[in-house]
Amino acid sequence: MHGFTRALGISIVAAAASALLAACSGPAGPPAGFQFKPPQVTVVTLHPQPVNLTRELPGRTSAYLVAEVRPQVSGIVKRRLFTEGAFVRAGEPLYELDDAVYRAQYDSAQATLLKARATLDAARLAAQRSAALVKVDAVSAQDNENAIATLRQAEADLAAAQAGVESSSINVAYAHIAAPISGRIGKSAVTQGALVTADQAAPMATVQQLDPIYVDVNQSSSDWLQFQREMGSDFVRSSGGAAAKIVLEDGSVYAHEGKLQFADVTVEQTTGNFLLRVLVPNPDRLLMPGMYVRAEISEGVLPHGLLVPQQGVTHDALGRATALVVTTNGTVEQRVVTATRAVGNQWLVDAGLAAGDRVIVEGLQRVHPGMPVEAVEQPMNAQSAPAGGAPPSAGSDHRTGSDHGTAYVAK
After folding, report:
1. What is the mean pLDDT of the chain?
2. Strand runs labelled E in 152-197
3. Interacting residues of 19 by C-beta distance below 8 A, sequence separation 6+
4. Which positions ≥6 away from 221 have C-beta within 8 Å?
5. Are residues 329 and 242 in the same domain?
6. How many structural domains compose the chain?
7. Which 3 state secondary structure label does DSSP give 64?
8. In a domain, 374, yes or no
9. Which candidate, 172, 182, 311, 407, has a CA 20 to 30 Å from the CA of 207?
């Protein structure tokens, strides 16, 4: 029995030693002739294509025409003849002032005119008689000249009387205040019985024409300079006035497209911006003055643009925008790219990539530069799938949400 126990102990010790030796020697290597299969990645081959470039700018609406209604004569308001907030047409009566004083002045001017006409008739007859008598030496030449001078004075008095009648009639007409333009009229600042004075500072009401309507947007001078530098010989500007799509405050797109009217020639010193004005149809009066909107203005067409899916552009440790491409020999190569314009879910590449490059869009985590890979082309419908992402480089100009920011967008 003692011998059996000793033999069993020796066997256990030998087995433990064998296990320890196997653990120290590590796992067994692959069989001779075995090769690793390169990882599979999804790529997109870049092809030049026409790209419609636009820029999105913040702005506010303003009325096409604005007319402040002020009295041109003084008087007491007898009646208000319009409904606040209603549409009024040019020439439509708005207020009626007490015109008793102006009518009395008009009647007096009419009487003065009648008197001047009677005086002129008498002077004309006297001058005619004098002209006949001077020929036969019945009156002196001096008396004839006096008769002619009296006639000329009577003619001047008649002209002055006619001007007085016209002036007094204008004052009577000014006592009935009419709409200067067609449009929507706001609230009335005066009521019946209020005293108004000629050329007063405060308007009685304001009429605004809202169809069409202006959208005034701000363009920074630095963005404008960048745009001018980026315009190459192959850049085609929009013809017939740049089109503008209006985005409302709730994010919805306005039904009517506007046209860029003009760009201001002066840069505001305090903000560094200058004004762009867009003319937008407003038949339904949906747009009101003072509303905050965004205008997406078409710049033109870039005939040979390169678009890269956003998921294919990442950042390296230095914060540079980079992309991994598959070379012709099947290895991965890292490129530093410049892309500052968003094209939906893609970036418009300015530098770093060329036509024909195969950019990796899926499987980026499994590969590194210099590694052999198996490239699979991504289907076209998958390339258009939505994808988010931050701007590809710290220097890209893709600012939104500010009254002075600019977001470059291309479609």
Report:
1. 82
2. 176-178, 183-185, 195-196
3. none
4. 267, 272, 273, 274
5. yes
6. 3
7. strand
8. yes
9. 172
Q: Name which of 189, 208, 196, 207 is nearest 71 in CA terms.
A: 196
75-80 β-sheet, strand order:
176-178, 93-97, 75-80, 195-196
Asked whether residue 275 falls in the same domain as residue 378, the answer is: yes
The tokens of 351 are what? Answer: 């530098």
Q: Higher confidence at residue 394 or residue 294?
A: 294
Please give the C-alpha separations between residue 366 and each of 42, 324, 372, 373, 392, in angstroms, as whole numbers: 12, 12, 11, 10, 21
The predicted-structure confidence for 71-125, as pLDDT tens digits, reads as follows 999 999 999 999 999 999 999 999 999 999 999 999 999 999 999 999 999 999 9
Question: Which CATH number characterizes residue 124's domain?
Answer: 1.10.287.470
Q: What is the pTM of this model?
A: 0.65
**pLDDT over threshold 50, residue 353:** yes
From CA 391, how far away is CA 228, in angstroms rounded? Answer: 21
Per-residue pLDDT at 387: 38
Same domain, 327 and 382: yes
d(CA 81, CA 388): 57
Q: In terms of domains, do 379 and 390 share one?
A: yes
Residue 185 and residue 66 in contact, taking contact as beta carbons nearer than 8 Å = no
The token duo for 306 is 């390169």
3-class secondary-structure state, position 235: coil
DSSP letter string, 102-156: HHHHHHHHHHHHHHHHHHHHHHHHHHHHHHHHHHTTSS-HHHHHHHHHHHHHHHH
Give residue 72's pLDDT: 94
| 94 and 107 share one domain | no
Domain range for 187 is: 71-98+176-202
**DSSP code of 39?**
P
Integer Cα distance of 315 and 317 in angstroms: 7
Q: What is the pLDDT of residues 164-186, one digit of tens each?
A: 999 999 999 999 999 999 999 99
Look at residue 272 and tell me whether its pLDDT is greater than 50. yes
